[in-house]
């Protein structure tokens, strides 16, 4: 994603020097060399994994940059990290912005939605870069100065929580269509939803694209990771006493996808058998398989 962002910024006429551990894509041999090659005052955009990798990068840049430089964390950092990063750099008179970025692998062509947190002066200074990255059209449709430091990553966290819920709804609809004998062409039904319906979206377009390649989606395992933002969104819902049942259920569904055989559902099956004599499936050579017994 960082590589594609670099190319989009360059296409807008800006000089960009990038550092990456991959020698095939990097412009500089080290972070120090990258800083040396940038003319002051510098603007440095970080796109590395959230957590310790980002914190270490910010700390290293704090030692390499000069007063008046500006750092933007465009990764999916937790918003609570931003205050620490900003304070660390402020002690060296270096500015800091946090920027939630959405656009994925398609951003180079279509542009990126940007949600920024930080001081207005720093945001204004970075606007030429933000304008290069955001989609064409009115600025407010692809860019928001969300608030103070931390607001950009908070906004992106909620964005990704919503994304969890939307994806889960499409996935459940797909499974229902697959299970229904009356439906003979599931991909055709989902493709028909792309025009004129209230459920049309870019996510739906991506599902159609996946179905074009694999109509039954059986080339993949149903194992789904989560990168953190869904968990953080649910934690915030708890902290703020805001009901978020859809996002919460979508997160827990991802956890369920990682279990070959759910201990909780084995307990449910056992209870149904105990109180009602309902049929159970005895475990065979692999957990969860075997014959049905009453």
UniProtKB/TrEMBL annotation:
One of its GO terms (molecular function) is phosphogluconate dehydrogenase (decarboxylating) activity. Transmembrane segments: none annotated. Residues 152-291 form the 6-phosphogluconate dehydrogenase C-terminal domain. It comes from the Bacteria. The keyword Endoplasmic reticulum does not apply. SUPFAM superfamilies: 6-phosphogluconate dehydrogenase C-terminal domain-like, NAD(P)-binding Rossmann-fold domains. GO terms for biological process: D-gluconate metabolic process; pentose-phosphate shunt. InterPro entries: 6-PGluconate_DH-like_C_sf, 6DGDH_YqeC, 6PGD_dom2, 6PGDH_C, 6PGDH_NADP-bd, NAD(P)-bd_dom_sf, Pgluconate_DH. It comes from Actinophytocola xinjiangensis. This is 6-phosphogluconate dehydrogenase (Decarboxylating). Keywords: Gluconate utilization, Oxidoreductase.
């Amino acid at each position: 994603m960082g590589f594609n962002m670099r190319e989009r910024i360059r296409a807008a006429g800006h000089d960009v020097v990038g550092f990456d551990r991959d020698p095939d894509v990097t412009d500089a041999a080290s972070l120090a060399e990258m800083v040396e090659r940038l003319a002051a005052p510098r603007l440095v955009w970080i796109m590395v994994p959230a957590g310790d990798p980002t914190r270490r990068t910010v700390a290293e840049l704090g030692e390499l940059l000069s007063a008046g430089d500006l750092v933007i964390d465009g990764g999916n950092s937790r918003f609570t990290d931003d205050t620490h990063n900003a304070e660390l750099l402020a002690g060296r008179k270096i500015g800091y912005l946090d920027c939630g970025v959405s656009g994925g692998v398609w951003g180079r062509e279509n542009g990126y939605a940007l949600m920024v947190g930080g001081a207005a002066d720093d945001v204004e200074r970075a606007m030429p870069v933000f304008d290069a990255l955001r989609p064409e059209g009115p600025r407010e449709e692809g860019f928001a100065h969300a608030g103070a430091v931390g607001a950009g990553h908070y906004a992106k966290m909620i964005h990704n929580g919503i994304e969890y819920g939307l994806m889960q709804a499409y996935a459940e609809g797909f499974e229902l269509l697959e299970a229904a004998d009356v439906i003979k062409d599931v991909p055709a039904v989902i493709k028909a939803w792309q025009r004129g319906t209230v459920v049309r979206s870019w996510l739906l377009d991506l599902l159609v694209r996946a179905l074009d390649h694999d109509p039954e989606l059986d080339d993949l395992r149903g194992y789904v990771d989560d990168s953190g933002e869904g968990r953080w969104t649910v934690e915030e819902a708890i902290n703020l006493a805001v009901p978020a049942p859809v996002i919460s259920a979508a997160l827990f569904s991802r956890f369920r996808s990682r279990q070959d055989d759910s201990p909780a559902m084995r307990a449910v099956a056992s209870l149904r058998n105990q109180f009602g004599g309902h049929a159970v499936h005895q475990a065979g050579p692999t957990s969860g398989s075997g014959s049905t017994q009453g």
